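Records of this kind hold a single protein each, on a pair of labelled lines. Below, a sample record shows both lines together.
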Amino acid sequence: MSFRLTYATMYNPPEAMHERFEEAMKRVEAKAGARHPLFIDGADCDAAQYVERHAPFDRTLRLGSFALADATDAHAAMEAARAAYPAWRATSVAERARLVRRVGDLMEERVYDIAAALTLEVGKNRMEALGEAQETVDFFHHYADDFESHAGYTNVLPDDPIDGVASHNASVMRPYGVWVVIAPFNFPLALAGGPTAAALVTGNTVVLKGAGDTPWAGRLLADCIRDAGLPPGVFNYVSGAGRDVGEALVRHPHTAGITFTGSVPVGRQLMQQMTSGTYPRPCIAEMGGKNPCIVTEHADLDRAAAGIVRSAYGMGGQKCSALSRLYVHESVADALIERMQAQIAAIRVGDPRRREHWLGPVVNATAYASYGQYAEALRTGGAHLLSGGARLGEVEPTLANGYYVEPLLAEAPLSHPLWQHEMFVPILMLHRYQDRDEAMRLANDSPMGLTAGFFGSDDEVAWFHDHIEAGVTYANRPQGATTGAWPGYQPFGGWKGSGSTGKAIASFYYLAQYLREQSRTVVE
């Protein structure tokens, strides 16, 4: 069987993958420092202001100069998308699918160069970066295939039972119009590209706003869409502050629907805005997680330790699916902690361009400062720090130019407020429990319900699935206790405060959210 990269298979890639990544890194670094405009109405578009971006692992490494959109640019993008909508909506299912699939094909040809840019911009290690780039390819292919398999969601219904009259009925799903996609910094390509592919293939036009920390990823996506030959205005890209550009897009009268990935407060605000006005409009919001894992006394502890460490500390804990709450049966807690401490100690932290470094930096100065504040809050709040707790730039001179921190494991009292706070840094809190019902109660004690993990005996798995309140679940998975969903393998979406729709990304039900139903009756 040939190697296929997913988040579950990234731990033992072929040597050729490393060679190709390093060649791509040389190419991309040679082009660093370029000027990157917006993309509006099928053309590059200068902005009144540009901002300099630097690598989070080395603040002396200049990545380039990136256009900073304002409300005028946002309006121009919305006008272009609105003008392009009638023709794009009328384009056949087969042709839209072909063009969307072509975007994925082009991205796959460029996957190593795109991954190298993600490493530079976000600070991901090479496997995480390659994983995100390939995941985005798979989104474009998966949604094109899925939409065609449903025949564009057109269904012929029985004729009305009227003697002597031919009364034909059908259910037809139709696009909404201009769809706004607001992407986060942590997966700036996949969480921009996935919703964009879904909106485009279903006949909507798109305006994408990238995160302020990661404007390069969105521009690379725009390049692939441009080169795939999509008509002008069908896709538009702007980047800037959420309070300015994001607000202008959300409030724009052409906005027919939104897909947002980010914090709970912003997601809830967007949902309220989209339900107000002349009529309610759809808002697909994925709003983070405070994800638990339960380890019973019957668990394979080596398998558990591997999955826990990968999910708690991969990409510096900067994943909405990251593991942050660990509940371990008291009889095996010490043995599991010992295994975890050994694995944490073996993690190499440093320049993510280098193959030996599994953990790069957190994304910016704010995250770096937050880590220090959380570590101090744990120390002073009765927690026992079992591993980590240092900001490495303050103790390692070779890391002083980057936002590097240690993976932190803390055994904390249940009264500590950080049990309920999504930190988005590499911090894992642990509690020893006595019986599994207590563990389940604690695991569900959160307003969020995105992912959850479990390690125990085979006959305990059904109990876990029956009681856990989470949209994505993993049992006995060493590849990641709470992380690692992939299009076509694991749908990804949250319950409770983690999601607004109850439908998962890349699921059987995802594309239908970008469409509205029209019942048609025609009498001959």
